[in-house]
Amino acid sequence: MTRPDTGDRFDDDDYPAYTVGSAAEMIGATPAFLRALGQAQLIEPRRSEGGHRRYSRYQLRLAARARDLVDEGTSIEAACRIIVLEDQLEEAQRINEELRATDPPTE
Predict the structure, then answer these.
(1) Which of 12, 15, 26, 99 is the most exposed place for a label (fewest CB within 10 A)?
(2) Mutual orientation of helices 20-27 and 31-39 as an angle, nearest 10°?
(3) Residues in domain HTH merR-type (predicted)?
(4) Which structural domain, as residue segments, surrounds residue 95?
(5) For the chain, first and last CA: distance in Å?
(6) Is residue 49 part of a domain?
C-alpha cells in the first residue's frame, strides 16, 4: 500500500486538518462560535468529502483571536472587523519591508 506524501501537510498552515469539534476544543470555544465566525465571514472552513467542516491552523489562530476579543466584551461582528484590519495592516507592513529591502533609498 502506497501512502500519499504528507510531509508538506504538517507544515502547511492552510491545510484543513481539524474538525469543528477538535477546532473548538483547541481554542476553548464552542462549535457554535466557530459557525458564527463563518457566518460573519471571518473564516470559511473547507468541507470534507462528507460535507463536514474542516479548519486550518491559520483559521484557528484567527478564531482564537476572535474568542479573545469577544471574551473582552467585543461583539463578534466588531471582533471580525478588527481581525481583518489587523491582517491587512500586517500584510501592508510586510510588503513595505520587502520594498524597502529591494529598493534602498538613495541620497
Answers:
(1) 99
(2) 100
(3) 17-85
(4) 15-102
(5) 64
(6) yes
> How many independent structural domains does the chain possess?
1
| 45 within 8 A of 55, measured Cβ to Cβ | yes
Q: Is residue 2 part of a domain?
A: no
Q: Which three cell numbers stand for residue 1?
A: 500500500
Per-residue pLDDT of the chain (107 residues; tens, 9 = 90+): 555 555 566 677 778 889 999 999 999 999 999 999 999 999 999 998 888 899 999 999 999 999 999 999 999 999 999 999 999 999 999 999 999 998 766 66
Classified as helix, coil or strand, 92 is helix
Give the CATH number, domain containing residue 75: 1.10.1660.10
Q: Is 92 exposed, middle or buried (0-12, 13-18, 19+ CB in 10 A)?
A: exposed
